[in-house]
Write a structure and sequence with these properties.
Blueprint lengths: L1 E5 L8 E5 L9 E10 L2 H7 L16 E9 L11 E5 L8 E5 L3 E3 L13 H14 L7 E4 L5 H12 L3 E6 L2 H10 L3 E4 L5 H8 L5 E6 L6 H7 E9 L12 H7 L2 E4 L7 H14 L1 H5 L7 E6 L3 H10 L5 E5 L3
Parallel strand pairs: 8-9, 8-11, 9-10, 11-12, 12-13, 14-15
Antiparallel strand pairs: 1-2, 3-4, 3-6, 3-15, 4-5, 5-7
The structure holds NADP nicotinamide-adenine-dinucleotide phosphate.
């Protein structure tokens, strides 16, 4: 098979296509002939040598894919050669073939073409597991998602508003805020110009956000807790603003608030399988009936992975960047 490899930790230019041995499925595993994969922020860190794959995972970058099942190991459940699927991966997506545990494979949602389906597994599993399984967002609650125009943000806005929450979001430009509003965000906040704590307070009559999905980590920790409602839940999934923050516990304590941080990639296969099953059951029907659209910024050939990484590093994307194997 062909795969994007990293010659040495560094900038986008260290990515290049090379030959790699084809994977063979073991018990409970499948091989997928990849149609497309998608770029995630974790991929940029892995390329720089800052986010090594979890033990046992492929050293090839790539956390999600879509494609066609080409080999099935023993005890791999319902899947058959020829099935069109998408999958959540611990690694290996930037390749023409990938090995995946059967539980992390999902059908392609109705109405979505095979390439576009690669835009969905990581955002759907991350948003569903954190916002609904961990934070328990309920209809009518105020939900603040930072970075509403990114891959995660565009999906989170649509899913939360489809399920009846009131969505508030931050983004870095007027154009990106307009996209967020179009996707269902009721309150849009320019993080470069406005204080989101004040904006959330005003928009919620002083109540605050019941759930916050945060991509920034340290730099927003204190302000996120200030922006929480009583019994609010802050879920941190990103560290774009650093890893060491300071928190005034008395504020959290008075609010009886919760701060949780999670990473999807390193969770055990059984937990990922439960998340994928829940996504296929609860989220795919919303995609199928058009209430959630996959938001794709651009699609490039796998051979141009370096350009795709540079694009995400520049922060110009709205939604996902896809890489196709059809070069
Ligand atoms: N823990 C997990 O399991 C997990 C899984 C998937 C993703 N993630 C994390 O989730 C985050 C988002 O991922 P993604 O795929 O959506 O990446 P992305 O498409 O590159 O989006 C990054 C977002 O960060 C926003 N941002 C930058 N500076 C900001 C600031 N000061 N305040 C608020 N937002 C700011 C950008 O907003 P503008 O473009 O408007 O400037 C953009 O929307 C990343 O940190 C990623 O590592 C975590």
């Amino acid at each position: 098979m062909r795969a994007v490899t990293v010659s040495e930790p560094g900038g986008p230019d260290v990515l290049a296509l090379a030959d790699r041995p084809d994977p063979e499925p073991g018990p409970g595993e499948l091989v997928i002939d990849v149609a497309a994969t998608a770029v995630n922020r974790a991929d940029l860190l892995q390329r720089q040598g800052l986010y090594p794959p979890p033990p046992g995972a492929s050293d090839i970058i790539g956390l999600e894919c879509s494609g066609t099942v080409s080999a099935v190991g023993p005890d791999a459940g319902r899947w058959q050669v020829g099935d069109e699927v998408c999958a959540l991966l611990a690694g290996g997506g930037y390749a023409t073939r990938v090995l995946v545990p059967a539980g992390q494979v999902m059908p392609v949602p109705d109405g979505v073409d095979l390439v576009t389906a690669a835009a969905l597994p990581e955002v759907a599993c991350t948003v569903w597991s954190n916002v609904f399984m961990v934070a328990g967002l309920k209809p009518e609650e105020n939900f603040l998602v930072h970075g509403g125009a990114g891959g995660i943000g565009t999906f989170a806005i649509q899913l939360a508003s489809a399920l009846g929450a009131r969505v508030l979001t931050t983004a870095g430009s007027k154009e990106k805020l307009a996209v967020c509003a179009d996707l269902g965000a009721e309150v849009t906040i320019n993080y470069r110009e406005d204080d989101f704590v004040e904006a959330v307070r005003e928009a919620t009559d002083g109540r605050g956000a019941d759930v916050i999905l945060d991509n920034m980590g340290a730099s927003y920790l204190g302000r996120n807790v200030q922006a929480l409602a009583t019994e609010g839940r802050l879920v941190i999934i990103g560290m774009q603003g650093g890893v060491k923050g300071e928190l005034d516990i008395s504020v959290l304590l008075r609010k009886r608030g919760a701060v949780v941080a999670t990473a999807l990639r390193s969770r055990p296969t059984t937990e990922k399988a439960a998340i994928c099953a829940a996504v296929a059951e609860h989220v795919w029907p919303l995609v199928g009936d058009g209430r959630i659209r996959p938001i794709v910024h651009t699609t490039l050939p796998l051979a141009d992975a370096a350009d795709a990484h540079a694009l995400m590093e520049a922060g110009d994307n709205v939604g996902k960047i896809l890489l196709t194997t059809d070069t």
